[in-house]
């Protein structure tokens, strides 16, 4: 990972260790006894909000269920790492903590009572501040603890994190690719003296004051184990099921949700001229898990855990034989196997992402096992879609054709969009709001969530890279913690005829309408995405981090 978007490579690199258990490598004495895995809350602009992101909207009644009940989805990447650790290093204790559910004071007390020897934290731009707070508290309780940061923000900014004001004191290693379980497993073996550091894939660290990065290709999805959620079933029952009940119980026969990384990237990537902007920005390459591996896991998840499955890929509904020259039959094979499974047949349990075009091609094929279509409409005006679309939606007519088909086939809808895309005028912004409210009213019996956001300028996006190249202000703000709201304000000001304040007022108007409609009928929820950087709670958290660091 790096700041500039590059194309992802999938494959193996023999310089690194991929196979476990290690042949001929006996266990060694080690001070490592416990590994803790932290899923982090969003910044304080989200606190008091809900699992879809976004703060409460002032002056709107009926937001009682929008109290911060925590996220619905366990963190798949962390559970995947735990699954590998449990299989190959069962003698090491592990603990999984999701701070969207657990009060900070409770977590802090647990850290000081019996601090971890190794702590792995997943870090997005919106969670970076809390990642440093947790890391600082761990280092305060156990100065010898090894702290590992991973995920998009930390991986892209590994150099800035490892050498930053906070990171150089708090972070020992950064995972820099899509190889989380192999990076973590290799790191644990290296810490135990069983593996040379140079053999650990996708790892960055400081050596003699110099940043060392060991980039590696993405280990193929069809050769990986999927996360085992039976390992955290107690937390599903205690925390996640309650959040699911608040938001989605009315929409699903099964009453919980887990996430499985069944695919990644999208088939648009095979034709760069038609590549969806999201995967183009991220450099993601089309890849899928092995159906023979997936189906038994789905049977366990659905049949034993009683859970729905969020297929957290970038374009799941694009992997069918009827699309893109027939290069992939993944969905066809999955549909056939689900229909033949006595456990899966008769259940519509999957939440899957797909562009409008992809849904129109795959809706009939997937109607036996996909319950919810997660679609990034982004915008209704094709002028706004032209430069920054996640796909070629071809304007509102094509969108409503797909929505009508979804309603006919009894799909549920999770719909997201962006207000304030380049080229937006006040008239366009008004029209986009009207279209979102009209969509919400027309399809409210089918919609689980409408999530509308401003175009957040964060590392990993092309707009961040382009802004970094062209604006001294962006370069001056660049570092281990990014002022995303201020940079988004600059981006909107320079690329539209509106302001970020206009955009946020429009988002609030959509939110008010969705909340009111959801109260009347349909159980529809609203999810905005606040950028942080504006409230006193976030300032207090910054002071909290500085105070902890001062006591190290």
Automatic annotation (TrEMBL):
<dbReference type="InterPro" id="IPR006158">
    <property type="entry name" value="Cobalamin-bd"/>
</dbReference>
<keyword id="KW-0479">Metal-binding</keyword>
<dbReference type="GO" id="GO:0051536">
    <property type="term" value="F:iron-sulfur cluster binding"/>
</dbReference>
<dbReference type="GO" id="GO:0003824">
    <property type="term" value="F:catalytic activity"/>
</dbReference>
<keyword id="KW-0949">S-adenosyl-L-methionine</keyword>
<keyword id="KW-0411">Iron-sulfur</keyword>
<keyword id="KW-0408">Iron</keyword>
<dbReference type="InterPro" id="IPR051198">
    <property type="entry name" value="BchE-like"/>
</dbReference>
<dbReference type="GO" id="GO:0046872">
    <property type="term" value="F:metal ion binding"/>
</dbReference>
<dbReference type="InterPro" id="IPR006638">
    <property type="entry name" value="Elp3/MiaA/NifB-like_rSAM"/>
</dbReference>
<dbReference type="InterPro" id="IPR007197">
    <property type="entry name" value="rSAM"/>
</dbReference>
<protein>
    <recommendedName>
        <fullName>B12-binding domain-containing protein</fullName>
    </recommendedName>
</protein>
<feature type="domain" description="B12-binding">
    <location>
        <begin position="53"/>
        <end position="198"/>
    </location>
</feature>
<dbReference type="GO" id="GO:0031419">
    <property type="term" value="F:cobalamin binding"/>
</dbReference>
<dbReference type="InterPro" id="IPR058240">
    <property type="entry name" value="rSAM_sf"/>
</dbReference>
